[in-house]
UniProtKB/TrEMBL annotation:
Name of the featured protein: Alpha-ketoglutarate-dependent dioxygenase AlkB
Pfam families: 2OG-FeII_Oxy_2
Annotated Fe2OG dioxygenase domain residues: 107-204
A Gene Ontology BP annotation from the UniProt entry: DNA alkylation repair
GO-annotated molecular function: catalytic activity, acting on DNA; demethylase activity; dioxygenase activity; hydrolase activity; metal ion binding; oxidoreductase activity, acting on paired donors, with incorporation or reduction of molecular oxygen
InterPro entries in the cross-refs: AlkB-like, AlkB-like_sf, ALKBH3, Oxoglu/Fe-dep_dioxygenase_dom
Organism superkingdom: Bacteria
Keywords, alphabetical: Dioxygenase, DNA damage, DNA repair, Iron, Magnesium, Metal-binding, Oxidoreductase
Needed co-factor(s): Fe(2+)
Length: 204
């Protein structure tokens, strides 16, 4: 990644963290409010959202969130016990992708979208270390809608970190982070409105 573009903008609010076994960058104001509002509304209406099911010990379990998978090629992608075929990029997804690519200097070929309808929707502890992503994947994650807490937990030391991901923010995870840290969006009792998260990935 070019360090240059990541640090030369005076207007952006960047937190760069070198943590044990990994790195992340958090840009809380990546998109301004009106751009973020527009993307949120458009994605709520145009993305083909589904509530997927997975099989656990012979029982069908519904994911506690809606998901969608878009990308360049027709390679199926497996995560959380299910396999999805990507849909074709929409205009807005390509626009967001382009802006993330300018920031990171990485060409992403796919995006996984998650939609958390309320505080009862969540994603539990996991890593994004699927073999299709290569050794030390860079994952760029765009947040729209309600602010939710993103937690990281080191698999050996159990150290925990917490980041509030708000409307229009970008979180970039890189280095060996996916091999040492799990992450989750826990459920919350606070009344929260909808949130959409887009994780841009490079499928090899
Ligand atoms: O919603 C988020 O911020 C995280 C989503 C996530 O971890 C994933 O899709 O793998
Ligand atoms: Fe993840």
């Amino acid at each position: 990644m070019k360090q240059l573009d990541l640090f030369n903008s005076s207007k952006t609010n960047i937190e760069r963290k070198e943590i044990q076994n990994g790195q992340y960058l958090h840009i809380s104001d990546f998109f301004d409010k009106s751009t973020s509002d527009n993307y949120l509304q458009t994605l709520l209406n145009t993305i083909d959202w589904k509530q997927e099911k997975m099989n656990m010990y012979g029982k069908e379990l519904l994911f506690p969130r809606l998901t969608a998978w878009y990308g360049d090629n027709d390679k199926p992608y497996s995560f959380s016990g299910i396999t999805l075929k990507p849909k074709q990029w929409t205009k807005e997804l390509l626009e967001i992708k382009r802006r993330v690519e300018i920031k990171t200097d990485v060409s992403f070929n796919s995006v996984l979208l998650n939609r958390y309808r309320n505080g009862n929707d969540s994603i539990s502890w996991h890593t994004d270390a699927e073999k299709e992503l290569g050794k030390n994947p860079i994952i760029a994650s765009v947040n729209l809608g309600a602010t939710r807490e993103f937690q990281l937990r080191h698999i050996h030391t159990k150290e925990k970190l917490s980041i509030q991901l708000s409307h229009g923010s970008l979180l970039i995870m890189l280095g060996e982070l996916q091999h040492f840290w799990q992450h989750q969006i826990p459920k919350t009792k606070k009344p929260v409105s909808e949130r959409i998260n887009l994780t841009f990935r490079v499928i090899k």
